[in-house]
Design brief:
Blueprint (H helix, E strand, L loop, with lengths): L2 H13 L6 H4 L14 E2 L10 E8 L8 E13 L2 E12 L2 E9 L6 E4 L4 H8 L21 E2 L6 E2 L7 E13 L2 E12 L3 E7 L8 E5 L9 E11 L30 E6 L6 E7 L8 E9 L11 E8 L5 E4 H4 L5 E3 L3 E7 L5 E12 L12 E9 L15 H11 L5 H14 L20 H11 L5 H13 L8
Antiparallel strand pairs: 1-7, 2-3, 2-13, 3-4, 4-5, 5-6, 8-9, 9-10, 10-11, 11-12, 12-13, 14-15, 15-16, 16-20, 17-18, 17-19, 17-21, 21-22
Helix pairs in contact: 5-6, 5-7, 7-8
Length: about 500
């Protein structure tokens, strides 16, 4: 390993806020391991009923490595066929979303085998980060290759089957402080790409690593983070569920009735308004419907070289009105200040909450830089993509009324404060003027519109969106808005 690689590794570690002892790096960056510490370790060592763990982590395949918290309580054992598994109550805090369920973890390697609730994507992130080392170190004493691994061992295996780096014990790192406390650790590491150091801190007789920082294997450019985590809390002998009072966010159906499952996409490529970078995008369907998803695929590219992606982009996807004011922010809807993409390419599904007509979507770039720091404004800019929203999804009707499903979605969002009064009224006004929403004959009020909507109308909208009152009751509320000149229509 040459001096350049040593400097790259040490610089990255210092920037990331990590420090190492002379024992770990006293002889320079190691190409062979072996730590002067007796004993062995494997993922799950010392694990027992009543253990409670709280991690903060990110994993690249889940929301581009956006941070989320994962809390695990080992409730006890469960039987699946002839196999005994750990039963683990699990809560995830992801932005403003709360996910609650159970995972069944293996005993030899504590990897997810059974998952309940809406935990599937998070269980994959858990497997590929916190328990990733179980691919090299399990509790099986008869497995001479993947059983418990000795700290004195030169290498625990290769990270890739062909041409991969050695996974090696690099050294002892005492007094490592994380949210859960201070630990004496052994540093497990390997190199990827052009010499990037990847680091996992393990503690003898402790089930899971307490910290990790691992990068994607790249040969050029800045490597994005593959996964990163830290143990924030750990308790033993927790005898009753710590999640009894946790109420999960309602699960949103990924496949919505009436929404297209196959469609053609619209392609585009534009520079940001500041010419800071090129943005190549693809969305579909061409005319999405309210209540359905728009599928986005976006690539951030070098303004001078369109085959080179821009890494570590801080961004948002917003919807603006005709005057340029922000109506929606995808980051805010997830409970974040901004979104982050480490690899220059992203794939997202965004639910349409806009009424039929032209919606102004904006890809807003705040800048470029590591996730933990304020981005460089040099690369800031935005571009606008106008999308025509269709209004073709219709619901079963009552009493001769013909109300599209998306109106019910809008009513629910409005009652919950997700869209404003103006947006709700504009949608209803559009429907009435275009004849999409048919209501009994109603005499409009006279004088200027009041724009003051009574609270009971909002309650009606929420009840109607949840199926608690009929279409007729909802339309009666709309008639009230018209006759009291809160909605102004042209007859």
């Amino acid at each position: 390993m040459n001096t350049y690689f040593v400097v790259v590794l040490i610089s990255v570690l210092l920037i990331s806020g990590f420090s190492f002892t002379q024992q770990a790096f006293g002889q320079g960056v190691k190409t062979a391991g072996g730590v002067d510490v007796d004993g062995t370790w494997y993922v799950g060592e010392g694990l027992k009923q009543g253990d409670y763990f709280h991690y903060r982590l990110c994993e690249l395949s889940l929301n581009d490595c956006a941070d989320f918290d994962m809390k695990l309580w080992f409730k006890g054992e469960t039987q699946k066929g002839t196999e005994t598994l750990w039963l683990v109550e699990t809560v995830v805090l992801d932005g403003n979303k709360i996910v609650k369920g159970e995972m069944e973890l293996g005993k030899v390697a504590p990897e997810p085998i059974g998952i309940s609730g809406d935990l599937f994507d998070y269980s994959i992130a858990f497997k590929s980060s916190i328990v990733w080392l179980s691919a090299f170190a399990t509790s099986d004493p008869d497995d001479l290759i993947h059983g418990p691994q000795a700290f004195r061992k030169v290498a625990w295996g290769k990270v890739a089957a062909i041409g991969g780096s050695q996974l090696i014990p690099w050294g002892v790192e005492p007094d490592v402080t994380v949210g859960a406390g201070t630990f004496d650790t052994v540093l497990i590491g390997w190199y990827s790409g052009y010499g990037q150091g990847n680091l996992i801190w393990v503690v003898d007789d402790f089930p899971f690593p307490i910290k990790a920082l691992v990068y994607v294997w790249v040969t050029t450019g800045t490597p994005p983070i593959q996964f990163q985590f830290e143990l924030l809390d750990y308790k033993e002998n927790v005898n009753s569920s710590p999640f009894t009072d946790v109420v999960p966010t309602p699960i949103v159906e990924k496949t919505k009735p009436g929404c297209p499952s196959s469609y053609d996409s619209v392609n585009g490529i534009k520079s940001t308004d500041s010419f800071s970078m090129i943005v190549e995008y693809r969305y579909g369907p061409e005319h999405p419907m309210p209540g359905c998803d728009i599928e986005w695929k976006i690539s951030f590219k070098n303004r001078y070289n369109q085959v080179e992606w821009v890494n570590e982009v801080h961004y948002d996807i917003q919807v603006i009105d005709d005057a340029g004011f922000t109506i929606r922010s995808m980051a805010q809807e997830e409970g974040r200040n901004a979104l982050f993409n480490g690899f220059g390419q992203l794939h997202r599904f965004i639910e349409v909450k806009e009424p039929p007509g032209t919606a102004h979507y904006v890809i807003l770039v705040y800048g470029v830089g590591p996730k933990q720091i304020v981005p460089s404004p040099e690369f800031s800019g935005l571009l606008q993509v106008d999308i025509v929203i269709s209004g073709e999804v219709t619901a079963p009707t009552e009493g001769g009324l013909d109300i599209p499903n998306w109106v019910k979605n809008n009513a629910g969002w409005w009652s919950n404060g997700q869209i404003g009064d103006t947006d709700f009224v504009s949608g209803i006004q559009y429907l009435i003027n275009k004849g999409i929403m048919k209501i009994p004959p109603t005499t409009p009020g006279s004088g200027p519109a009041s724009n003051e909507i009574p609270a009971w109308i909002k309650n009606n909208a929420g009840w109607w969106s949840n199926g608690l009152i009929s279409d007729q009751d909802f339309v009666s509320g709309i008639q009230y808005l018209i006759t009291n000149n809160i909605i102004k229509i042209t007859l």
